[in-house]
Design brief:
This is Flagellar hook-associated protein 3. Pfam families: Flagellin_N. One of its GO terms (molecular function) is structural molecule activity. There is one protein chain. The protein is mainly α. The protein has a domain of 210 residues: f41 fragment of flagellin, N-terminal domain (Up-down Bundle). The chain contains eight helices and four strands. The strands form two sheets. The chain has a two-stranded antiparallel ribbon with strand order 1-2. Strands 3-4 form a two-stranded antiparallel ribbon. It is rod-shaped and about 125 Å long.
Length: 303
C-alpha cells in the first residue's frame, strides 16, 4: 500500500485529537470533582451511583419520618404527663374530701376545683399536633371529646382500638406513633362518656352529696386511671427510646452511603493530576512530531 503525505497528516490529526480528548476528560474531572459525566463514561459505575443516590434519598425520607414520629410521641408523652398531674391532684383532693372533718363549704370548694380539673382533662383529650388530634385514631380532624366529656359522635369510639398510625422508618421497619382515646380514657360508661371522665363525674356527685364514705370509694377509681396512664407513659417512653436508636442508625447509614458515593464517583485528585501531566506531555510530543510530518510543498511557496 502506498503511503502518502496526506494519509500521514490525517492520521496525525486524528491522534492529536484523541490526545486532546483524553486531556480534556481529565481536566473536566479535576474541575467538576467527579469522574462520571455521562453513562458512556462507565455504565457499571453509573448504575451503581444511581442506586446509591436512590438509597440516600430513601434514607433521608426515613430520617424525616423518624423526626415526625419523635415529635408526635413527644407531644403524646407531654399530654400523658398533664393527664397524670391532673389525676394526682384529683386524688389528693379526694383523699382530703374523704376526711370526716371536712365542712360542706370545704367540699364545695373541692368540688369546684375537681370540675375545673375535669375540664382540663377534656382539653388534654383533644390535644393536637400540627392541627391533628392525637387521640382520635384515623379521624385526626375530629376532636375526641365534647365539652361535657362525652365522646364525639363523629368518632366510632369502639373501633379506635385498631386505629394505630404507623410511620415507616426503615425498609421493613415501622413504628406506632399514636395512642387512641380508648387506651387513655377507657371504655364507654354512662352517658356516652369514657371511664376516666365517668369516674370523675361520680366523684363530683359524691362531693355534692357530702358523704365522705362514698367519696373515699372514688380513690380506687382514680388509682386505676393513674395506673393506666403510667403504663401508657412507659409504653410511649419505650417507643421514644426505640426511635432514638433508629435515628442514630439512619445517621450512620447516611454517612456510609455518602462515603460510598464519594468513593464511586469522585475524582481521585492525585491520580487525575498524574494523568493530566502525562497526557499533556504526550500532546506536546505529538505537536512536535506533527511539525516534522507536515512537510512544505510547492503550494507553500506560491504566494
Amino acid at each position: 500500500m502506498r503511503i502518502t503525505n496526506s494519509m500521514m497528516i490525517n492520521r496525525m490529526t486524528m491522534n492529536m485529537s484523541n490526545n486532546l480528548k483524553r486531556m480534556s476528560k481529565v481536566q473536566h474531572d479535576l474541575a467538576s470533582g467527579v469522574k462520571i459525566h455521562r453513562p458512556s463514561d462507565d455504565p457499571i459505575l453509573v448504575s451503581r451511583t444511581l442506586k446509591i443516590r436512590t438509597d440516600i434519598s430513601q434514607n433521608d425520607q426515613f430520617n424525616r419520618n423518624v423526626s415526625d414520629a419523635y415529635s408526635v410521641l413527644e407531644k403524646t408523652e407531654h399530654s400523658l404527663n398533664e393527664i397524670n398531674s391532673v389525676l394526682q391532684r384529683i386524688r389528693e383532693l379526694t383523699v382530703q374530701a374523704s376526711n370526716g372533718t371536712m365542712t360542706p363549704d370545704d367540699l364545695d370548694k373541692i368540688k369546684a376545683e375537681v370540675v375545673q380539673l375535669k375540664d382540663h382533662l377534656i382539653r388534654c383529650g383533644n390535644d393536637t399536633y400540627v392541627g391533628r388530634h392525637i387521640f382520635s385514631g384515623y379521624s385526626t380532624e375530629e376532636k375526641l371529646l365534647n365539652e361535657d366529656g362525652s365522646i364525639n359522635s363523629k368518632i366510632d369510639y369502639n373501633k379506635l382500638k385498631d386505629q394505630h398510625i404507623e410511620y415507616q422508618v426503615g425498609i421493613s421497619a415501622t413504628v406506632k406513633v399514636n395512642l387512641t382515646g380508648i387506651e387513655v380514657f377507657g371504655d364507654i360508661q354512662e352517658e356516652g362518656k369514657p371511664k376516666l371522665i365517668s369516674d370523675i363525674d361520680k366523684l363530683i356527685k359524691r362531693l355534692e352529696q357530702g358523704d365522705n364514705e362514698q367519696v373515699s370509694k372514688s380513690i380506687q377509681d382514680i388509682d386505676d386511671n393513674i395506673s393506666n396512664i403510667l403504663r401508657l407513659k412507659g409504653d410511649v417512653g419505650a417507643r421514644i427510646s426505640t426511635i432514638e436508636v433508629i435515628r442514630n442508625r439512619i445517621e450512620d447509614t447516611k454517612i456510609n452511603f455518602t462515603k460510598l458515593l464519594s468513593e464511586t464517583e469522585d475524582t481521585d485528585m492525585g491520580e487525575a493530576i498524574m494523568y493530566l501531566n502525562m497526557y499533556e506531555s504526550v500532546y506536546k510530543a505529538s505537536l512536535a512530531i506533527g511539525a516534522r510530518i507536515i512537510q512544505p510543498t510547492l503550494v507553500d511557496f506560491l504566494r
